[in-house]
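Hi there. Long-time user, first ticket. I'm pasting a complex I've been working with (about 858 residues overall). I'd like to know whether the download I got is complete or cut off, because the file seemed smaller than I expected. Thanks.
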Amino acid sequence: MPETAQQDRKEDSTLKTIATHTHTKDRALRARASAVIPGGMYGHQNVGAMPEGFPQFLERGRGSRIWDVDGNEYIDFMCSYGPIVLGHAHPKVDAAAAAQQAEADCQNSPSSRIVELAELLVATIPHADWATFAKNGTDATTWCLMVARAATGRRKVLAAKGAYHGAAPWCNPRPNGTTPEDRANLLYYSYNNLQSVEAALEAAGDDTAGIIVSPFRHDAGFDQELVDPAFARGLRAICDRTGAALILDDVRAGFRLDIGGSWETVGVRPDLSAYSKAIANGYALAAVVGADKFREGARQVFNTGSFWFAAASMAASMATITAIKEERAIESMTNAGTLFRDGLAAQAESHGLRIRQTGPVQMPFLTFEDDADFRKALVFTGEAIRRGVYLHPRHNWFLSAALTEDDIAEALEVTDVAFARVRTAFGAD
Amino acid sequence: MPETAQQDRKEDSTLKTIATHTHTKDRALRARASAVIPGGMYGHQNVGAMPEGFPQFLERGRGSRIWDVDGNEYIDFMCSYGPIVLGHAHPKVDAAAAAQQAEADCQNSPSSRIVELAELLVATIPHADWATFAKNGTDATTWCLMVARAATGRRKVLAAKGAYHGAAPWCNPRPNGTTPEDRANLLYYSYNNLQSVEAALEAAGDDTAGIIVSPFRHDAGFDQELVDPAFARGLRAICDRTGAALILDDVRAGFRLDIGGSWETVGVRPDLSAYSKAIANGYALAAVVGADKFREGARQVFNTGSFWFAAASMAASMATITAIKEERAIESMTNAGTLFRDGLAAQAESHGLRIRQTGPVQMPFLTFEDDADFRKALVFTGEAIRRGVYLHPRHNWFLSAALTEDDIAEALEVTDVAFARVRTAFGAD
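Hi, the file is complete. Here it is re-exported in full:
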C-alpha cells in the first residue's frame, strides 16, 4: 500500500464522511456540456480551474447540505456564492414564493408585493428612502452609476482598483469583449487609501458623479481587508463636499453583516446601495435603495427589464428579510463563523502551518503563507471536497444561518485532515 | 342622462363585460408606492402615461385572463409584454418549475438542466451550435456585442436607429444617466435600408465587429415593419464578406413567429441570437445561441451572474419549448391573431375609421390615421380597458396560445364599442 493511501485510511477512519465519492454522472454531463456550451461551462461556476473532486453539476440543497448529481453530500460553505443566507430550501421563503407564484409572477404590471417590499427595505435600511428592483447585481451597480450621473449631470465615477462590481463591459474583470471606451469615465483609487481617492478626484476635475465602493475589500484571489472606518468617513465627507453620490456595492455582503446595510457596522451611510445575492435567499432579485437626495435622479433614468416586476422573488425577499430578523440569522452566521475560524486557526497551528484568515467571519477566506499560486489552497480545498466539505481555493466563502455547531465540528474534522495533507505535501512553515 | 352615459348604456347592454370597474385598492397602492418608489413606479410597466382605467397593480393570471388588485378581469393582449406565450400559469410549465425548485434552484454549480436546455435549444434552432444563459434580454444583447468584439478583435457595432435592444447605457432609449462614451462604438443604420448599412460600414472602416438587428421593426410608438427578405439576405452577405457577426435580437419576438428563430421565416440565419421574454413562459431567463464560428469568442468573454445558472427557470424553459411544439402554440397565436386583425379591420371600416394594423398577427399593433399624438389610441385603449380588454396605445401587443376564438369574439364586442367612441370623439376619417 502506498504511503498516501495508508495515510488516507488512518486519517479517514476517524471521519464520519468517508472519501468514497464518485463522479460518473458528473463526467458524463461534462462531456455533453462541452458540445453545447462554449468551453463546457462559463462564469464563476465553471469548476475547470478547481481541484479534482469539485462537481460541475449539483442536484439538491437542504439547509446546510448540498448534493451533487452523483449523490455525494457536502457541507456548503459557498451558499451559491452568496444568495443562500438562511440555508437551502428555507421552508418559509419557499412557501412565500410558491404561494405568490400560484397567483401570478410576471405580469403586465407589478403586484402589490413591490410596494410592500419597498416599504420593508425603507423600514429596514436606515439610509433608504426609496427602492427599485432588478434581477442581477450588475443591474443594480450599473443603475447606481446612471442615477449618480443623471442626478449630478457629471460623468466620472471613482472605483477601487481590482474591485468586482459585475460583468457588464464597464466592470468585467477580463478585457475580452470590452473596449477602452467602456471605461472612459472611470477613475481608480486604492481601497482604504483616501489619498488615492483625492488624487482620482483631482484628475476628474469637477466631473465626479459618484464613488462606488464595496463594504470591505473582497477582490477574488486576495486576502480580504476590512474597511478602515476613517476611510469610510472620508468618502462620506468627500461626497458631501462635492455632491457626488456615495454608492455602496452591497451585492456580495448585503444581509450578512448588518440588516441595515453593511456600513452600519462603521456608522457611515451611503447615498445609494446596490443589493442582490442574499436578498431573497436564492430567488433572482436585485435592488437599489437610495436617499431622498437622489430620488429625482432615480426617477429620471429609464430602468426596466422584462422580469424586474415579477412578484414571486419579491415575496421570497420579504420572507427572507423577515426570517433574517426573526431567526437572528446574522448572529447565527457570526457564531458559526467564529467557531470555524477559531478551529481552523488552532488546527493550522497544530500542523505547523501559517495561514491568514481574513474578512468578516460570515464571509471568511483562508490563504496559506507563501502560496501566491494557490497550490496549497488547491490541495487544502481538494482534500476537503473529497471528504464532503465545500470550500473555495480563491474566492471568499459564504456561511448560512443553517450551519449548526455540529456542522462546524464535522467540517473541522475534515479540515484537520486537509491541513495534514498540505503539511505532508509542502512541509511546515 | 348625458349623451355619453346613454350611449354607454346602449352599447354596454350588448356586452358580457360591463364597465363597473372600480380601482379603490389600486389608488391606495399608488399612494403608498409614491412614498417608497421614485416616481411611484418606473420602467415599461409604469402606467402613468396610460389612459385612466389601466390598473397599476395586478394580482392574478390564468390562461388568457388577468385580474387586477380590485378583482377586475381582463382579456390579456399584452402577455406581460411578451413573456407569457402559452397563457398565464400554464400547468405543465409551472409543474416543471415547482418540481425543480423543490430540489434546488440557485446552487454553487448549475444542475443538469443547463445541459439539457442547451441541447434542446441546439436541436430546436437551426443556426445554434451552442447556448449560454442569463436573466435579462439586455444581458443577452450586451453579451452578443462582447462576443462579436472578442471574436473579431474589432470595436464597432451597427444598430438600427430607434431600435430597442435593452436598458443598459449603450442602448437605453433615454439619454438620462448615459454618457456619449457609452455609444462611442455604435453606428446607426435605417431598418430595411441596405444602403444605410453600407454607409455605416464604410464609416466604421475595417473595425466592424457586428451588426445587431431585430427580426422586424418593432420600435415602440411606431407602426411596425416586417423585414424585407432582401434586407436580411443583404446583412447576411455583408457579415459573410466582412467577418462581422450577424446578431439577431430575438428577445421580443423569439418563440412567437418561428420555433427555430424569427428569421427562419425569411430563410436567413444569424451568427448569434439573443433570447429572453417568452423563453420560459414568464420565468426569468435569457439565452444567447450561436454558431460554431463564434464559439471561441464566446468562450473568451467572462459571462456571469449570481442567478444565471439557477435551475427552476431552465426547467420552465424546457417545458415551455416542448409545449410550444406539442400544443402548436404558434399556429394558435396565428389563428387568434388573424381573427382579431380581420375583426378589427371590419369594425374600423364599419365605423368609418382608417386604421393601420402592422407587424405579425402574433405581435400586432394598431394605429389610427392622423394620430401622431396617440389621442385616438388613448381613447380606444381606454374604452377597451374599462370593458375588460387589455390593449396598449403605444406598444405592440402580444398574443398567447391561450386565447380562444371565444376570447377573440368577446374582445371584438368590446373593441366595437371602443371604435364607436373614437368615432364619436374625433369623427370619421
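A couple of notes from our side: Chain B touches chain A through 114 residues (CB under 8 Å). The longest helix of chain B spans residues 329-350.
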